[in-house]
Amino acid sequence: MKLKFLKLAFAILIVFTSACGKGTTDQPMNEENIKNFFDAPENTNIKQAIKDVFNVPALSLDQISKTEFDEEVVRTRIEVVFSSEIDVKQTNKVLQQLGATIISSIEGVPALIIEIPDPGNLANLDKLIEETEKLPQVRFIRKAYMPTLERLPSLSISIDEFSLEDFRHHLAVKFAPAWNADAAISAQPLFIVQDMFGNGPPSGNVSNANIIDNLEFNQEGLHSHGYNVLSIASSLHDFTSGGAMPGKINLRVLDLRQTANTTDANNTSKDNVNRLDNLSLDNYFLDLVASSYSGTTIVANFSLGWKCTNTGDSYCRDVTQTKQSAELWTQKIREKNLEDKFILATSAGNRKTPYYDKRDALTGSYWNYAALMTDMVDEFDQPMNPLRNSLIVENLRSTTSIPYQVRCLSENSFVTGNVSAIGTDVWMYDSPSGGSLEIGSGTSMASPQVAGLALYLVSINPDLTASQVVDIILGTAKPVPRETHSECSDALPANHIDAYNAILALDNADNTWVRQAILDVGDRQGNPTPDNNFDEFDVAFFAQAFQDAETIDQDEGLLDYSRHDLNGDGHTGGIRIAAFDLNYNGSDNDIITLQIGSESQRLSEQSLTDWDILCYYAYSDLYVSETNIDDYEISDLLAQKCIKAPAYFMIETEGYKPGTADYYDFNYLVEIEANGNVSLLQNWEHKYVSDMQTAWSADGKSFIRAFRHDGNNNQNQFVDSLVTFDIHSKAGATLSRVGKSSQNKDFAALSPDGSQAVLSVVNNDDSENTFRELQFWDTATGLHTNTLGHWPTAGGKFGRVLDWGNDGRLYIEMWELFEGAGSASSLHVVANGNIAPLGGTLNCDFLNRYYKRPKLSHDGKWLAIGCGHNDTLLEELLVINTTTGAPRQVYQGDSTGISGAAFSPDNKYIVFSDIHKQGGIQVYNLEDNQRSEVIPGTKIKSPLWGPQGEFIYYSEGDWVRRVNFSTLEIQDLLEIKDRFEILLSAPN
Description:
β30 (about 770-780) and β31 (about 785-790) form a beta hairpin. It contains 20 helices and 49 strands. α1 (about 1-20) packs antiparallel against α5 (about 120-130) and α11 crosses α12 (about 365-370). By secondary structure, the protein is of the alpha+beta class.
């Protein structure tokens, strides 16, 4: 083996001699110099001998050649990665034969950056590398590339006048509300930017930074890219924070700007290149991190890549070199124990080819590869885990109209990054002084937003490790909605940052400094100045801001960066909703209970208004004051705004199941918030079902469904079942199959507290005699508790359930059939286990024609029913006085025309519809006996009043809609395709 090595070394020397034969460094290249460097016995393992060294000389322009792909390669500089098993003697032999001078190394890493004699051209350099890599002591060799800017041919528009419109890239990922926590900043983390600058350090508006060291800035020649990046990550302007990080930072800049053929003070030409190659930069950067680390996590941003800048580049087709460099980069970081001490945000990379070239982010740089790939191995060929401190950022677009939202992947962004941010049409400064603004696009613009968010997290909690920050950012990132990104391409982007949720995730049960900062907006003197307390004065500030905002139409193009925007939807107050982590557990998918006195309300973290959040914290432990919030003058307003019951509907309809020939009953449980947010909570499908009814408890928390269905394998042996369902727990149970089905329309009801259910059923006694009865059931245990009435069907008399009032009285209809077609109905009340007539005289052959659900008013004074007449085939809508039993006619229409009725929450109005005679929605004023048409229309079914009294809900055709009772503005809420005549039920 020794003979083989000597022959190969001799061949290498021939290459050197024929190429140039002379080195270009100032240090003599001799064996003694190499030995002195290692300062260790020859039999010492190389990993133990290598120390931290950085002694990189300046380059000369005549040492640099360009490839056919316009990449600059240093001919006289390489990095040799050795086998970990060799010793100093073997290493020295290789270096001596190469005529090398060591210029940089990292302790514990068997890799040396060396200067070598100039081989004269790239072909000779490639041959030298190929031959040297055959040596058993050498694993691989890396070339030295000069930094070249990898940036899109971007849109660049000078902005004469600043406007909030320039900040939509911040609005889309919720930076504006995140900035409200800036009072929680407790540290100034170090920010390292490696980029193209030139022309001096930033000043003025470009960065809100303490410039630690200006020596890295090249003072001649300007390139705007670095200043663009810096201003996106952290900067100030006249309105608010222009950069992602709103507070002060400590800044170190590694300026990669090329300065060639410059002159000195005597106007003498100089040919040194004032920049570092990629090999030296890696070591320099890691040494800078190690020497600067003081217990606070450092953040760095590299908005450019080293390779894959051209489609034809062989480096892009063969990722072997990328993989090797990634493995070495990872090894260096871990040998220096830096993985959890700095966060690296890098750009995924920009495509310069048509969109169909879906290049992966891992080819953008070896930094990316080290974080994204799982096939890396160490020097012993053992699997190496990806780095956990790196964020590889894709470029997203945002919508161009309010509300600004994340839209889709940019056509020019690499895919397979691990996070994304808005990088299209981004506002930024373009020079050291911040002289002008411009708009740019590319992953270079997205990456510093992620770096700025990482800086913000560390500035609030300087004890965070790099992996913790990365976990927070990735853990709170949101997927791009499928319906938006599909408009743009078939490339699914990485989850996008949510700056607000990331900042909120810093809070936990022990520390709530972020929320304290967001909520502390005023002092006791009435000034909008934080005073380190969230008290009644802050609550008043918020309430006033919400009320003021509600007088403004915020859909008319007004952008809101107010610190009062608690839910982060871009608007203050109003009815807009957004997800928010109320209980600071890192998730915004919980159901939270808001308790105000004896009243409670369940809040979904997925749909909260600013008022919801203020109410929750005003009654939480975060409120600290000698004045109880209930004793403060604003308590009445809070009670009004904080306790809002959503509207729950059971949409009952029928039709052929899509794709089948089977006829089904379809039942959709829908929650409609007071703000209009619609959620489909549950859906049921039933085949061979007849006569289904839904009854709600008075508190709206649960309901029962009583329905007749085929219980004997489609043999038309129908039975009645009683099913309960709790809204908030989404739990249901079948109480019992309660008897054979009646062919009449028997209704069910729940007691006001939902604990009991009643259903009128047909049953058999032991002698198989058929009778009708009222059965009572305990909804918690599912046990049958009581039976009232025992009306033999042969007698033609039975009781049918109508509604159960808040006063505990159960209203039923007694219906008696006579020989022939005659019938008579009357109202009865069940109280204290007894059935008694209500009183009054009704001239009705039957009540509640077809599915007309009887409804009690909220105060229990009125009962709305339908009254039918067999002889005239007319139908009336009546309201019955529940004290006297006296009826009042509200409306008279066609036989089957009246479609339900509902009372307003204040019991002043009743709303209904006649789908045959007039259509539309009718409103009857109970106080002045006046009826008016509110909304004309056709096939409008079962209009219902929402719990707050502001909206009336109804179905028309395939749509569930609501109309604002004051403005008559109509809003589509839910579409049920291929269904007809939707019926709705709702709690009192």
